[in-house]
Amino acid sequence: MDLTRTFFRFAAVPLIAFGLSANVMAGTSSVTQQVTQGELTAWVHGDALNTIAYSHGSQDSFRELTLHVDDLRGTYEGWSVTVKSSDFFYQGPASGNHDIPAANFVLGATRMPIWVSGQALDAGIAGAAINGPLDIEQTPLTAKSGHGSGNYTQVLPVTLTVPEGSPVGMYVATLTVHTSAAPN
């Protein structure tokens, strides 16, 4: 048995194995990152309207509410936001029905939206000059497809006309804010 030849055979096996494993280890690989979809949300920061005194004549109570819209879907498909009010239900000591109809609650001309974060404001995001009663859905803010993937606020000027002779007490309404996944 030739020891030199046997040694060479055993010494070459690790080199060949090493060379093959080096080729297997070389090359490319991929790294992935998934971005998941969030939600489109909108809400109105409600507050008490201005306090008024009992009167024999009708009175207007004015306030500015703030609409918040946050689109975390990441789809850039646009959206619209609608706002609607219930009647102002009377909660007080007087007997009888003294609710104030939602038609007396009017959304005035809205202001330009304000950018908070995300996609900047541009011509694809629009407020609406409404001056309409909130007993029907009003659409104060929309974003066209390709726009609105961000967080925005908008001032909503509202006026409640309190009818003459409305008794003392609290009047409570519910604002419903609805989002649609594409502009109306």
Your description of this structure?
This protein is mostly beta strands. It has a single domain, classed as Sandwich (Immunoglobulin-like). The protein is 12% helix and 41% strand. The chain contains one helix and twelve strands, in the order αββββββββββββ. The strands form three sheets. Strands 1, 2, 5, 6, 8 and 10 form a six-stranded antiparallel beta sheet that branches. It has a four-stranded antiparallel beta sheet with strand order 7-9-3-12, with no helix packed on it. Strands 4-11 form a two-stranded antiparallel sheet. The longest helix has 23 residues. The chain is elongated. The termini are far apart. The model has no long low-confidence stretch (mean pLDDT 87).
How much of the polypeptide forms β-strand, as a percent range?
35-45%
The CATH architecture is Sandwich
Number of separate domains: 1
**Helix tally?**
1
Radius of gyration, CA atoms, in whole angstroms: 33 Å
What is the average per-residue confidence, as pLDDT, rounded to a whole number?
87
Q: Give me the secondary-structure category.
A: mainly beta
The largest pleated sheet is described as: 6 strands, antiparallel
User: Helix fraction?
Assistant: 10-25%
What is the CATH fold-level name?
Immunoglobulin-like
Quickly name the level 1 CATH class. Mainly Beta
3D shape = elongated
What is the H/E order? HEEEEEEEEEEEE
Count of extended strands? 12
Distance between the amino and carboxyl termini: 91 Å
